């Protein structure tokens, strides 16, 4: 790391900071310029870097500390330059075939789930999504069917052959939810819920980690590193839009994050244009854009009748809209050499 | 709620939406203008409003839906217009005396904790803060001493007489942590962790809820409503800065939120200028500003030697800086008729 | 517009606000519910709506005012549902053929400009970009060659046949700059510079209006309306990224804005992935994404040797990178039925 | 500046970048670590630093470039450590006495202006504000009375003795507006309007520069440097709130910016809580907070009848509200050793 000192730093202060660094076993590289004095500190252990940077930044004669190395290792591109493919019941995520996760926001009943599952499978989806435990901004909203919803999802898998993904919110539920589903989903509200990240890090099954709505790309990768550091390397990232000043859309889908994640990490990346826009009329266009930019797949919400959906009707596609979206995606997938 | 329709809405579509509303038992109030057609829907149950707005918004001939009533009740100012005072071992939060919560970011050892506790008490703090379980962006950082840290906090309370506040991150730890401390703290990363909110909502002790770094004031009040809806009304709010484009400071302390929360809610409000700025040199000024604007107290991080702090050295005050901050706060407190 | 009143509003206050509305010649539609009282005000002139909403919002018994109609007319989709195509020296913007504007950020010399112009034309660009007057965050940076740069651009057009686009920053320069170029560009820093908007609104030539880095989509359309309201309807919109909390990229390219603008307006839309990312390594992917989502074209910065560029080297493509980007764009353009 | 290279950088690439730096006459300081290789470049001229950093960042083997020195000089605290006081017709800005600028958003008529001017003077304001040229988001809104408004302001100064401040939007109007008023105001929409900054930099009278709603503190100081670099050092900064995701308030008043500007610059700072909140009910509290944190004064909008204001009624104070705000400010000013 590089420590940039105030122009007025004294020799005594330089000796003090040098002593701190040496007591940590770090190499010290002083560079005194006319206007600025810098210290390069060489050799800090990764585990200590963030703390050390913060400690040194508290010295009144330190202007700022610039970290050099990336704060994640296992999920970094350099760890596996060829990229990661995750296989779930024969469906590959991060492979040549585009991954399409579709289904209702929330499991509302057996009938609507099975009807939706069959429809999305027939139209080209290869993974079924559906919420059994649902977070909500309001305590008075519907929060899902719980274990009964999980059971219905498993039945829908039996019937359609589609692997299933569903959200887990409580660290105490990881085993239960994992017993039913094929991919555990961590929602945007829980990207910084460290307790939950650790728990799914101990599970031995794929996890899809949604980006926190106000988390930077590097913080998102650090959250993935939490899971990976517990031994679970089957991680899928999901870009679902970030919070900005714009009000016409519910979130701002961060297209830059698609190639940026591919540059920084070897993990597969799914785009969620439903949450990324919050408006059904924009979903298909943003899905095309994400795939064209290199996303390994998309996740969308589909509902037989969005105007009766218990969750997220505004961003849910009807069956005909989903069919139309798939029609638009196919040539784009082909253009980037993907099957779909 | 008000439903604003597309200018081209047809009579059939009006009949359809009217039918949906009536099937829910809602009163329908149609208003056809030259340019716009509106429907006022009267009588929706609070529990159903968010879903209904979202469902109707998914209809292709609906432009947007405008909710009218506030999405929280128990924490709203109207519920207790005179305001709430919470009493913890004889210390009042929300009362006439300014509340000053101070202590190290993290409990690092018995010695540093006791030394800091005595110092902040002698300089005017009336509640001791200290982390035993610490969230971190990186999995490789220090995460606190755990239960041993809780024991030390309890000892520090015994010695100084200061009630203690500490963070709980895991819903399974609420009972354990609550057994040691006087106020449970929910950190910014967990404001949207609904599992945890529900768990502290079932506890019978005060909870301080920090604002999520990218949560609106109304979402923060809804998170408080989660706690309140489980029966726990002893809630303290804590403004700790929000995430913006500014890079000179770590967060942007949202001063507007101080009078806004007082307008919207009856709950007491604490300001956290350490996280709100991320720079020790700005902490005292922002603390003064928050108190002048009506905050019921402040929380700050104090460390004997910030350059060795295991967490958040950059924003921690030394003992002399804390003393100076308190000297600056006293006349401000007096100016707003507070004791300090 | 709808006026939502405080629950405690009195009959006298209702009479007062009714009087205000009637004195403006507006129809008043009162709706008293159990919890809320609303007034629908019918018939306000467009010119007066924003002021009136703001005036009524200042009354202590008014909770908030909800505008109903869009704050722009001439640039709204309804004004010309079939969309607008702008023709510049035989090149169509908004037509079937993808528009590719390419060239150096800044004109630095005759040689580099001509070399770049020939290269981008041969690789498929159909409009030449280049700055003669350049805004900079720092007063000590290079600010362009001025009129000499304009002359070189005109020469490059003569040689390559490519129409030229260049930025105008000073209202006093509109005539001069317009005399040389084919499209006037308003930069992101000047989207809210009303003096300049009016001046180009009086010009009789195409204007490309970049989105302000912190302007909403609707504010951007209102800025276009400024130009249109002066009689100049030849407006091209350019999405160039917005400012968010993300630090890995310089801006966040707002992909949602592409279909949103198409929904709300009839104007053609160009994407600028160079400024939208600020990193050359992400430009090609974001360009593909924008075109897949429906952009009518892209603008990119190309430089023979970015490491010597006087402006924006970080986001400039080399000739081989531009060639590669074009190769990637062609199948995407074909997938959305565009020529390229 | 420090250049951080990719781990895989080759000797040839190091030689190339070394050559680039030496050809600019810069000292090169290479530091090869196990994981990272850095180059310290010593001696770049200020005028060239931003460009050079950007050029080097475009090299494919450069990870990033970290600038070391501040991008402004004349407005930096080090330039005049004791701080700057600006005197306008006997009123000091940045001195011991708190500066209170008050008046209507827009001059609407002689009567309302004189009535307001007398009222605010009698209640303690020492500078009169009022808009003659007003920017608006919509082209159809009221844009001010123009020169007639300036004449009325000058008359109001004659009658009340209060110096006047008013906005200038067009570089061609600087002489005209400056001929009437005592302080030229640059609005938030024009902080990045370089043409206008240069023009007021050539004027020989005080300028108040509002922060752009999405400009960082350092960009704001660079905009001030534009003015200063033309020879005009009489600059007043005005914090007026930034744009964030929060929707309850129109802007987020950035309290951190108050001590941050004092740390970084010697210029006086005024707080604008009216625009910083956009809600009259929050203005007084935020004004108190800003003064407690060290602002040299405040600017507020006052109107005899906000419900008829042609601009910004929502954030305008009535005469009684202004009186109440002043009553609350006086003890705060005293607490920070200011007269008021």
Task: State the secondary-structure class of chain A.
Answer: alpha/beta
Taking the alpha carbons of the first and last residues of chain A, their distance comes to 45 Å
Q: Main interface pair? A: A-B, 55 and 56 residues
* Most strands sheet of chain A: 8 strands, parallel, barrel
Tally of separate helices of chain A:
11
Shape assignment of chain A: elongated
Give the oligomer, counting copies of the same chain as homo and different chains as hetero. Answer: homotetramer
β-strand amount of chain A: 15-25%
Low-confidence spans of chain A: none
Provide the gyration radius of chain A in Å: 23 Å
- Give me the side-by-side strand order of the main sheet of chain A: 7-8-9-10-11-12-13-14
Strand segment tally of chain A? 14
Order of helices and strands of chain A: EHEEHEEEEHEHEHEHEHEHEHHEH
Average pLDDT taken over every residue of chain A:
93
Name the helicity range of chain A.
25-40%
Question: Would you mind describing this structure in some detail?
Answer:
The structure is a homotetramer of 340-residue chains. Chain A contains eleven helices and 14 strands. Chain A has helices at residues 11-23, 46-57, 110-122, 147-160, 174-180, 194-202, 217-229, 257-264, 273-277, 280-292, 319-335; strands at residues 2-5, 27-32, 37-42, 62-66, 86-88, 91-93, 99-103, 127-129, 164-167, 183-186, 207-210, 235-239, 269-271, 297-301. In chain A, a hairpin with a 2-residue loop joins strand 5 and strand 6 (91-93). In chain A, helix 10 packs parallel to helix 11. The relative contact order of chain A is 0.12. The model of chain A has no long low-confidence stretch (mean pLDDT 93). Chains A and B meet through helix 2, helix 6 and helix 7 of A and helix 2, helix 6 and helix 7 of B.
């Amino acid at each position: 790391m590089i420590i940039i000192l105030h122009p007025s730093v004294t020799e005594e202060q330089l000796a003090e900071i040098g002593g701190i660094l040496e007591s940590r076993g770090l190499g010290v590289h002083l560079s005194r310029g006319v206007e600025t004095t810098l210290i390069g500190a060489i050799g800090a252990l990764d585990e200590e870097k963030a703390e050390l940077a913060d400690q040194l930044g508290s010295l009144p004669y330190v202007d700022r500390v610039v970290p050099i190395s990336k704060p994640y290792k296992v999920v970094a591109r350099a760890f596996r330059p060829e990229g990661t493919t995750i296989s779930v019941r024969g469906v590959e995520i991060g492979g040549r075939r585009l991954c399409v996760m579709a289904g209702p926001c929330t499991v509302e009943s057996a009938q609507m789930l099975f009807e939706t599952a069959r429809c999305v499978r027939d139209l080209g989806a290869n993974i079924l999504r559906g919420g059994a435990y649902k977070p909500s901004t309001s305590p008075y909203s519907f929060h899902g069917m719980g274990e009964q919803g999980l059971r219905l999802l498993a039945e829908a898998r039996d019937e359609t052959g589609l692997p299933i993904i569903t959200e887990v919110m409580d660290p105490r539920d990881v085993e239960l939810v994992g017993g039913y589903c094929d991919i555990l989903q961590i929602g945007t509200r829980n990207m910084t819920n460290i307790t939950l990240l650790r728990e799914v890090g101990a599970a031995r099954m794929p996890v899809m980690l949604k980006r926190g709505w106000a988390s930077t790309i590097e913080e998102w990768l650090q959250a993935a590193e939490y899971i990976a550091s517990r031994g679970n390397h089957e991680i899928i990232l999901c870009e679902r839009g970030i919070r900005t000043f714009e009000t016409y859309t519910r979130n701002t889908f961060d297209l830059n994050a698609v190639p940026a994640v591919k540059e920084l990490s070897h993990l597969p990346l799914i785009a969620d244009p439903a949450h990324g826009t919050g408006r059904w009329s924009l979903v298909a266009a943003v899905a095309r854009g994400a795939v064209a930019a290199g996303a390994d797949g998309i996740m969308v919400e589909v509902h037989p009748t969005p105007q009766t959906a218990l969750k997220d009707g505004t961003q849910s596609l009807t069956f005909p809209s989903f069919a139309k979206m798939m029609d638009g995606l196919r040539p784009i997938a082909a253009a980037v050499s993907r099957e779909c």
